[in-house]
Amino acid sequence: MSRLYPYLLIILALGLAVPRFHAQQAAKESGPPENLHIYLLIGQSNMAGRAEIPEEAKGIIDRCYLLNGEGKWEPAGNPLNRHSSVRKDLAMQKLGPGYSFVREMLAKDKDAKIGLIVNARGGTKIDEWNGKSELYREARKRTKAALNDGTLKGVLWHQGESDQGAADAYLGKLQTLVANLRADFNDPNLPFIAGQIHKPCAINDQIAKLPETTHLTAFASSDGLTTTDGTHFDTKSQLLLGERYAKEMLRVQAALPPAPKPPSDIQFIDPHVHAMSVTPLGLRAVAKWMEERNVERCIVSPLNHKGSRPQTEEEHATMLANFLPYKGKIDRMAIIDAGEVETAAQAVAILEKEKAEGAIAFGEHYGVDLMFDDPKNLMLYEACEKVGLPVMFHIDQNKNMVEPGMERVDRVLKMFPKCTVIAHAYWWRQLQHSDRQLQEHPNLYADMSGAVVVQVLNRDRKFAREFLIRNQDKILWATDEGWWSFGSKDRQMNQHYTFFEELDLPDEVRQKIYRGNAEKVYGLK
């Protein structure tokens, strides 16, 4: 026995080593997943899941990962909403449509690995999912962190029970949600599937209209589904609903167009960029960016940042010297802040000097903490009309402020009919009135720079195309790119180089928008 003892120890050690080896291999194989097909699941209680979890759905889902509360992937298993950063009590989280959805998607693609971000909260209204809300910000934050490990392939939305008292406004809000997500994730064609709530109702009618107005969207029908309490789908119905989500997602994904490309037959003119114009050689970055982006000519607008706008005569001289080698390629605007001058005559004197030194426009006009038609702003419009400089203005929540209807903008345009005015930023958010103003005021134009424009126009591409054709002589392609973005090719602004190409605009319209209107408005010819 004493002779056998060492051999027994060796056999025992080998026996223990085998499980350890397999455990090490499993740990190695289950490391951070890569190249995931990522799906974001948001909404209220039926997306979170309130149905009982059947025995067959209590295990780990093979080839599927769930983003946990630490922003890491773990093998997915029900309840899928347990790591939601906005959920209600953990005990309330049960079976939702995500389980059968992912099973169907994996069955259709045997090589795929799926990552789920489930961030639903029961009892919420669609207004609580707008772009500024905590619910939306949390979903966006978690998704952006997850995109290091894969590609966002689509969004599942199930909500509406809390909005049945305001059904008429639901479709417009849903369109805005889709547009916000597509803009924030830099994908104007991001597939979006909305699920209908229980029983026929006005909300379901609104959800069913989404694919008619918003491209690459669909809805998962609730026909024939049953509930436990009149609101929350039971287990059988949640499983069926998830399968319907998968069917619609696969159909929309199959219809995705090829990745859009910037136009190759036209060179852009960009009348709205920002640069460190005061810094020695500060325009080199602009020139390099123009070569990379097929921009033939651009106009630089100064901002109140050190290095962007001259603060002394010496800096002003440096700025003029910087622009001189780029004459006919990089032009500039001049700016006076509202309140810097006491009379229009003082503004006229400054702007006449700027114009003589090469400034071709006035902007970007901010009007910080002022209403759009504040007397301080009117003074600047009066001066620009007298000097003959176009004005490019900015509107947002604390700059050149307006109310719904934008009557203050109408007032200024009528007061100074010989002043050419170019709209920008939140002016686009009231698209119905923007359309009206472009038609009514001969002196009004608009540039499409900034994230908000593609976001707004992408809500309804049929309307967007009609809007652009109708206003083809008034729209200027522009980006609002600046020193903070010239070196990056992957910013959200990339949509500006491709969006119009997806709308199948007539060539004449493309020519006007990409360059012709800028030549006309700013006198570049």
Walk me through what this model shows.
There is one protein chain. The protein is of the alpha/beta class. It has 2 domains: 30-254, SGNH hydrolase (Rossmann fold, 3-Layer(aba) Sandwich), CATH 3.40.50; 268-522, Metal-dependent hydrolases (TIM Barrel). The protein has helices at residues 4-29, 45-48, 98-108, 134-146, 170-184, 202-213, 235-254, 284-292, 313-323, 344-356, 375-387, 407-415, 431-440, 451-457, 461-470, 507-522, and strands spanning 36-43, 64-67, 73-75, 114-118, 150-158, 192-195, 217-220, 268-273, 295-300, 330-334, 359-365, 391-393, 421-423, 444-447, 475-476. Helix 12 links the parallel strand 12 (391-393) and strand 13.
What is the alpha-carbon Rg in Å?
28 Å
The CATH C-level name of the largest domain is Alpha Beta
**Relevant CATH superfamily of the largest domain:** Metal-dependent hydrolases
- Order of neighbouring strands in the sheet with most strands: 8-9-10-11-12-13-14-15
Protein structure class: alpha/beta
| Uncertain residue segments | 6-29
Q: Report helical residue fraction.
A: 25-40%
Tally of separate domains: 2
Total number of beta strands: 15
* Termini separation: 104 Å
Mean of the pLDDT scores?
Answer: 92
Proportion of residues in β-strands: 5-15%
Count the DSSP helices. Answer: 16
CATH A-level architecture of the largest domain: Alpha-Beta Barrel
